[in-house]
Specification:
With 759 residues, the chain is of the alpha+beta class. It is built from 25 helices and 24 strands. It has a six-stranded antiparallel beta barrel with strand order 16-17-20-19-18-21. It has a five-stranded mixed β-sheet with strand order 7-8-9-10-11, with helices on both faces. It has a four-stranded antiparallel β-sheet with strand order 1-2-3-4. Helix 2 packs antiparallel against helix 3 and helix 11 packs across helix 12. InterPro entries: ARTD_PARP (IPR051838).
């Protein structure tokens, strides 16, 4: 029976090619993406004797007549072979699978036989070419024809063009002049040592024009500790995505156009491949902008079929800060650098003064740097990190400048504020970047999601997060008569807590004292119907109190007798008000715990059959008191202890995130927003860098991708003789403490300056 559809014919041809004994071709099979297939090209003159090649039809619905093939490999191949694979998109239109394989084999053999054994060449010598899709790429006539542009790596996906065009509509090509300029800009990127790829659009009129500039992270020369602190892996690639909503923007266009009229968009990501798939790139520019692929109804792409877990385009620790800088400041700073001949730092100072409205009234003292000041200051770094393309007196490539700008601030991120990006005066360089002393920067860092990703930290450093929470909780307890040991309290976060006091304060008549815990200040007496999750306020005149609206969080105290718990026990329930009918509240209880907190009692109440528990009298406390209004540190610490009990365990939070990678803790109804803000503060305010050395039994079940490479190769640092204990290493303490320690060492003249630590 003949194939019913063109896609069926494509699959049949792939199977037929696998059964055919094609020379130099082995292992034809299904790829990770729908309709993609892979095969191995076998030859003694290629690295390792074979190359795994991926083939992706660009329009399976029009196979074979109007379809072409995207051909690529994930292997590091010499540029001659890479050029043949890249050029295949333009020269395979109308081919069936068998003809494609034979044509690729012939062209690869031509290169191998004419040049001898192919060595790993310098990709910087890759010459961007323009060829006619109807001519052999090796013919003399195909030297500079503009009919089809394929002078850079392409991953164009016709599905995107079909969103706004009829399937029979051919793309509208751009002018030859624009095409030549694009080729020139891209060649400059390649010559500088980066890889540049066209994902969609660019060489024809399209609503989606996205390019990528990438560099393997191992070429940055970062230490293992730095890579872990910045959430990078040497085997991955740093990728700058640039989206042009309209026409391609040249450097000259950017200089003469007001910045607010230039609608370039930037995303900085990491990926196991140097070029992500289109669906992931589009997702990075979506309003959520998470950077990981999510299935969208418009494209009708399946997550499992189109993007393997290891190939995901992912955000990383400091990437959001660098994206903020690219989005807000890059173009303005680039113009200032070019027109005033200053460094990036001086351009940032100038821009800040312009924003503050002091540019015309306050003298600006700016340095006039020598050519290529970065190279003089970083002579030991590889040229790819210090070259400054903006100093070029001839044609300048805007994508190259953007990538060099991103690298400049990435490699020096610890020296700049993560929010305002101005250079900080520090006496010790930290591994982890932070914010300057401006209150606004600290507020944005803690509240606007510009600090570390809480979800990512919990997934990849579960026990480090658990350790930080434990440190915080322990510091809330009193140390003799000196009060809590917490040095700095979370201020300015609008942490709303119930009005409770420790037993150090006397209770009023309306207050309720909980034995061995504290005092509830003016609670509301209620009846609780557990089977219907309903709360009835006994004194209806109190129903108008603030903090009792729909969507508000409340804390409920109940006391249960010995028949229910084995002994008298006080329990706090943390609940969300879902609906309300005057004095009757419909609630959703997300967690409960005994007071005082005891493990045996906690485990017991989790097993209770609450639905069969009878009508209970309790006390309700709205979360209507701001932590900032509590002036007593003992009472402030007491409220924080109650607040931290609202959090589920770190293991529960990680399980929630791992069940579905699209889920976020911030939208989990199990965690009150106030507790989420406290958790963010605990993690974000930690300026030290802690590494877990040994693995727990659960860690051993995780894949390397899930762990993100953290903690690998640390077993040699374990302290022996303490089996059963989890071990951590402070790769670096807080910068302030490290600086104090270093200064103290410098004051000691003895040859052995300390017996407690080494530096």
């Amino acid at each position: 029976m003949p194939p019913k559809t063109t896609r069926d014919r494509l699959q049949a041809d792939i199977l037929a090619a696998g059964d055919e004994n094609l020379p130099y071709i082995q292992g034809i099979g299904k790829g990770d993406i729908q309709d993609e297939f892979v095969f191995s090209f076998i030859h003694t003159k290629v690295p390792e004797g074979k190359i795994e090649i991926h083939v992706m039809p660009q329009d399976a619905s029009s196979y074979p007549r109007d379809n072409s093939f995207l051909v690529y490999t994930d292997a590091d191949v010499p540029h001659q072979i890479g050029r043949i694979l890249n050029d295949a998109t333009a020269s395979t239109t109308g081919m069936c699978v068998a003809d494609l394989l034979k044509t690729l084999t012939r062209r690869l053999l031509v290169v191998l036989d004419s040049t001898g054994e192919v060595e790993e060449g310098d990709e910087n010598n890759y010459d961007l070419t323009i060829t006619n899709e109807n001519e052999d790429i090796y013919s003399s006539e195909a030297s500079d024809n503009i009919d089809t542009y394929n002078g850079f790596e392409s991953d164009d996906d016709s599905d995107f063009d079909l969103l706004h065009k009829s399937p029979n509509t051919m793309p509208t090509k751009i002018s030859d002049t624009s095409l030549r300029r694009i080729r020139q800009d891209f060649r400059a990127v390649r010559n500088a040592g980066f890889r540049v790829s066209k994902l969609c659009g660019i060489d024809h009129v399209s609503d989606y024009n996205i390019i990528t500039v990438s560099l393997k992270i191992s070429k940055l020369g970062l230490s293992n500790d730095t890579q872990m602190a910045w959430d990078l892996q040497g085997s991955s690639h740093l990728i700058l995505l640039i989206r042009y909503p309209g026409d391609y923007v040249t450097f000259e266009d950017a200089l003469r156009t007001p910045t607010e009229e230039i609608h370039l968009e930037f995303r900085l990501r990491k990926c196991s491949r140097y070029r992500p798939v289109i669906a992931e790139a589009i997702a990075a520019f979506s309003p959520t902008g998470t950077g990981t692929y999510r299935e969208g109804p418009t494209l009708n792409l399946n997550n499992a079929e189109n993007s393997s877990e290891g190939d995901q385009l992912l955000t990383f620790g400091i990437g959001s800060s660098l994206e903020l800088l690219l989005r807000k400041d890059f173009l303005t700073m680039m113009k200032l650098r070019k027109t005033k001949n200053v460094s990036w730092e001086d351009a940032k100072i100038t821009q800040s003064q312009i924003i503050m409205g002091r540019y015309d009234t306050t003298p600006i003292s700016l340095s006039n740097p020598k050519p290529n000041p970065a190279r003089a200051a970083n002579i030991d770094q590889p040229p790819i990190l210090v070259d400054d393309h903006l100093l070029n007196e001839h044609s300048v490539s805007l994508p190259l400048i953007a990538m060099q700008f991103a690298l400049h601030y990435l490699m020096r991120c610890a020296n700049y504020c993560m929010i305002c990006h101005e250079k900080m005066v520090v006496n010790f360089e930290a591994l982890k970047p932070y914010v300057c002393s401006k209150p606004l920067c600290l507020f944005q860092y803690m509240n606007l999601g510009l600090g570390p990703s809480i979800d990512h930290e919990i997934i990849n450093q579960q026990y480090v997060v658990d350790l930080l929470i434990s440190f915080f909780y322990a510091s809330l307890h009193q140390s003799g008569s000196h009060g809590p040991r917490l040095r700095e309290f979370p201020r300015g976060l609008d942490l709303r807590v119930p009005h409770v006091r420790s037993q150090h304060n006397a209770a009023n008549l309306k207050d309720h004292t909980v034995a061995n815990f504290g005092t509830l200040v003016d609670p509301i007496e209620i009846e609780i119907e557990w089977s219907h999750s309903e709360v009835r306020i006994i004194d209806k005149s109190l129903a108008d109190r603030t903090g009792l609206g729909v969507g508000e969080w409340v804390v409920i105290h109940t006391q249960h007798n010995e028949e229910a718990a084995g002994r008298g026990v006080d329990i706090f329930h943390h609940a969300l008000i879902e609906s309300r009918l005057y004095s009757t509240l419909k609630i959703h209880i997300v967690s409960r715990h005994p007071v005082p907190m005891e493990l045996a009692a906690y485990e017991k109440i989790q097993c209770w059959n609450w639905a069969n528990t009878g009508l209970t009298i309790g006390r309700l406390m709205p979360c209507d008191q701001s932590l900032d209004d509590i002036n007593n540190k003992i009472e402030e610490a007491f409220s924080l202890k109650l607040l931290i009990h609202m959090l589920p365990s770190v293991e529960e939070m990680r399980s929630y995130l791992m069940d579905n990678r699209c889920q976020q803790l911030a939208t989990w109804k199990r965690i009150p927003p106030v507790a989420m803000r406290l958790l963010r503060w605990i993690i974000a305010s930690n300026r030290s860098f802690i590494i877990q050395l040994n693995e727990s039994h659960t860690d051993k079940q995780q894949t390397l991708d899930e762990m993100g490479g953290r903690g690998l190769g640390q077993s040699q640092e374990l302290i022996s003789g303490v089996k059963g204990w989890m071990q951590f290493r402070f790769a670096q303490g807080s910068p302030e403490k490290e600086a104090l320690f270093r200064d103290a060492l410098l004051e000691v003249s003895n040859p052995h300056r300390t017996i407690l630590a080494w530096q």
